[in-house]
Amino acid sequence: MNGPAEVKLELDDIQRGVISPRPTPYAATYLLFRIDERADGRELMRRASAAVTSAAESVSPLGETWVSVAVTCTGLAALGVPRASLDTFAWEFRQGMAARARALGDVGESGPENWEAPLGSPDVHVVISAVAPDPFLLDAAVDRARPAYDRLPGVTAVWRQDCYALPTETEHFGYRDGVSHPAVEGTGIPGSNTREAPLKAGEFILGHPDELGGVQAPRPDVLGRNGSYAVFRKLHQRVAEFRRYLKENSVDPADEELVAAKLMGRWRSGAPLALAPLHDDPALGADPLRRNTFWYEQDDPAGFTTPRGCHIRRANPRDASVAGEVRLHRMIRRGAVYGPPLPHGVLEEDGADRGLMFAFIGAHLGRQFEFVQTEWINDGVFFGGEDAKDPVAGSADGTAGYTIPRRPLRRRLAPLPRFVTTRGGEYCFLPSLSALRWLGELHD
């Protein structure tokens, strides 16, 4: 009996930033541009096609370093992509993140009216990002990309955000970051959970069959095929408030770390509660071959070990049947820290801006990023938690507490404030290399 056919992807046409896990440690930067003159915008696309690293370049000239180029819907319009073509893109992409803010929970302090300019505005057209193992190689990567946008008077740089790995290789709340990565058929890159079968390429790369057998791609084919959608979000973290919450809801330092683990679903070392339920295991947390290989429903259906409402169980319920078909909502997630660390033990904010630049990559904005954000992060109905929100990343308003399942009595924590606020974001399209060339050759 024949097995499943081997999936062949055109890796030399796919941007490496779509499928490659972030290096550890890392340095990264995001550069945003506005297109003022169509001809120069097209020249930017043509040059970018030569600067972007393809997925076939497993070892680039600068090692684990790559440059990616993404375009917003207003950017595609500024380049002169015909309306008939724009109308074939995902409707969420055409609306833009700012227009989707209320549905995403970006209200109040996180609302677009409070976003960092020019994020969420019509002035963001092109996003160039670079990632490298260290600042020296990052500078080299930016230098490699600079000829793409340098000396183009009709292209204006409007924003920049530099990111870097903290010395602890954690994000600002103290948790090890970059732990989970799904396997994608045809990429040759293994997933972080060896129990999870590789996902269909069409879940992340347009123009290929997805988990439902459908093929999604904007038209014409040369523009849509081998591209992807990317969600960029700047998330400010209230580190001192998070530390105070842990301290006020615990009895001693050991209990403080347990509460932190129950909110996240992992100890701050990266060791999951599912595999280290009673105490932290730093060796496990540092082992990429072990720290992500587990299920929830098979071993812990009631959440006595890993609370059903914790962050990682919401963001990826794994084998949960009540969450629908989880594989339809998987994404590639990447986070990059920005801003100075708050010194250890400090419990008052110092006024510095610090947080994460988050990137989510997939082929289905609606049933991937937006579904997870609205149904799993900012609602709890899917696991019986009514309207309870994610304790770490949700849009909490200080009215609802957090429950830690425990025998004989559950443990109730105080109402959760909002620890993470949105400072801005964009829905983008990551064109293939051939699509970048096509955009560069457009004519009115």
Automatic annotation (TrEMBL):
Q: Which InterPro entries match?
A: Dimeric_a/b-barrel, Dyp_peroxidase
One cellular component term (GO) for this entry is: cytosol
Top-level taxon of the source organism? Bacteria
**Which cofactors are reported in the record for this sequence?**
heme b
Q: Which GO terms describe its molecular function?
A: heme binding; metal ion binding; peroxidase activity
> Does the record bear Ligase in its keywords?
no
Q: Which UniProt keywords apply?
A: Iron, Metal-binding, Oxidoreductase, Peroxidase
Q: Which family does it belong to?
A: Belongs to the DyP-type peroxidase family.
Instruction: Report what the protein is called.
Output: Dyp-type peroxidase family
Which organism's genome codes for this protein? Streptomyces echinatus
